[in-house]
Specification:
- This protein has 427 residues and is mainly beta.
- Helices cover 0% and strands 67% of the residues.
- The strands form 2 sheets. A 12-stranded antiparallel beta barrel has the order 1-2-3-4-5-6-7-8-9-10-11-12. Strands 13-14-15-16-17-18-19-20-21-22-23-24 form a 12-stranded antiparallel β-barrel.
- 30% of the residues are buried.
């Protein structure tokens, strides 16, 4: 269920980026992975937010359900304890490596009122379902959280959803804080068209200031208006630093990308073509004030969605040179990173990224980015023109073009034009 649906005070008076990541097992011994990217932006008298998250449950063969949530809305604080909210929650469920003939798709429109306290939150919401799967018309929601229950490290939470005044769905559990950013979590839930399931694992949560481990996070959503196959794509990434000194660091990056098929129309069902995961590990050493060398490893996984097809995976390792630790941070007018090494599935591989600042002032900058990945079988090109608003959380609208070129066959994919909006936060 949506993270923000538990009535949390998100602090709409300032720009804010929040990352939650849960990893564990469910009651059927499947792997459970749940990242949530949320961005809050203020406006006069309130704020608006956007959130992307998914719940992945996979067995040993990487088969299982993925629940996608894309949420957006507005909030207004009245006094110190009253929170008013209007939100749209889009939910759909897909299966990896399995044929799926029907996709559950639900759109919740909720008006909520909440009481926000130092240790206790309580919220009530009501609204209709729009453009949803059959059988979903009205919705009532009650949720609450008690922080510091019994002892300071323990927090309890619960949520009840009443659909059509007839069907009850629920979620309840606890968080046990191990430190400022890591919790043990347990939850038991009965969700839309899914059996009662329990989950147990670890949760990482960023804080608004100097978040332990977390270095950067970003989220992009783009539309492809002229493409014959895809209508949009969503991608996100977060990076963590496990060790950092003046001359070296160790960083882990986890990203995903989901291209969505066209379907009958843009507002028809959203069918992801694949779920791409990328896990990267860097050991970086500073050679000069503007030059860094790194050993890099990249594991890439592509999971077909709603199709009974096998997954593909590859492992790349090599050496890299860059002129700043994080390519996405706009510290320099010219940014670059090049890497060369061996892909154990595709052979020799070369990766390159180049960023050039075109124009900028104290509040806005315009820049371009060019990325390429070349191996013995194919070449992937990604060109983008972007702008950045600067500040605590950056808004980055963009237009771009990407293409896959096959080097051993004549079956090149068509180039794809994109435009969209990105969010970026450097902690």
């Amino acid at each position: 269920m949506p993270t923000a649906a538990r009535g949390e005070d998100t602090g709409a008076r300032q720009k804010r980026a929040t990352l939650l990541v849960e990893f564990g097992l469910d009651s059927l011994e499947r792997r459970y992975y749940h990242p949530s990217f949320r961005f809050d932006f203020p406006f006069k008298g309130g704020g608006w937010f956007s959130e992307v998250q998914y719940h992945s449950r996979m067995n040993g063969d990487l088969q299982g359900a993925i629940d996608y949530w894309v949420n957006a809305g507005m909030q207004k604080t009245v006094g110190e304890k009253l929170l008013l909210e209007l939100r749209l929650n889009h939910f759909c469920r897909h299966e990896t490596l399995r044929d799926t003939l029907y996709v559950w798709s639900i759109n919740e429109v909720l008006a909520r009122v909440g009481l926000v306290g130092k240790h206790f939150n309580l919220a009530f919401g009501a609204g209709p379902f729009i453009g949803s799967s059959p059988g979903y018309r009205e919705l009532l929601v009650l949720n609450g959280e008690w922080r510091g229950a019994l002892f300071p490290e323990l927090s309890l939470f619960a949520e009840l959803k009443l659909v059509n005044f007839a069907r009850l769905y629920y979620e309840g559990g606890f968080y046990l804080a191990l430190n400022r950013n890591v919790d043990i979590f347990f939850r038991n839930t009965r969700h839309y068209e899914f059996p009662n399931t329990s989950y147990l694992g670890l949760r990482y949560r960023s804080s608004d200031g100097d978040s332990a481990l977390l270095d950067t996070m970003k989220m992009l959503a783009g539309v492809s208006p002229f493409d014959n196959r895809f209508k949009l794509e969503v991608e996100g990434e977060f990076k963590m630093e496990f060790f950092r000194a003046d001359s070296r660091r160790v960083a882990l990056g986890i990203g995903f990308e989901t291209p969505v098929l066209n379907g009958d129309s843009f507002f028809s069902q959203f069918w992801p073509a694949r779920m791409y995961y990328a896990i990267g590990l860097d050991y970086e050493k500073k050679l000069a004030p503007r030059l860094f060398a790194a050993w890099v490893a990249r594991y890439r996984l592509a999971l077909p969605v709603d199709k009974d097809r096998s997954f593909t995976a590859s492992l790349f390792t090599g050496l890299a040179l860059r002129n700043q630790p994080e390519f996405d941070v706009l510290d320099r007018d010219v940014r670059f990173e090049v890497a060369a090494g061996y892909n154990f599935k595709r052979g020799l591989e070369f990766d390159g990224e180049l960023g050039l600042k075109i124009w900028g002032n104290h509040s806005l900058s315009v820049f371009t980015e060019m990325k390429a990945q070349v191996d013995e079988k194919r070449m992937h090109i990604d060109l983008r023109l972007l702008a950045s608003s600067g500040g605590r959380v950056e808004l980055r609208p963009y237009v771009g073009w990407k293409k896959d070129i096959q080097l051993r066959t004549d079956q090149d994919g068509e180039g794809r034009f994109l435009f969209g909006l990105g969010f970026f936060k450097k902690f």
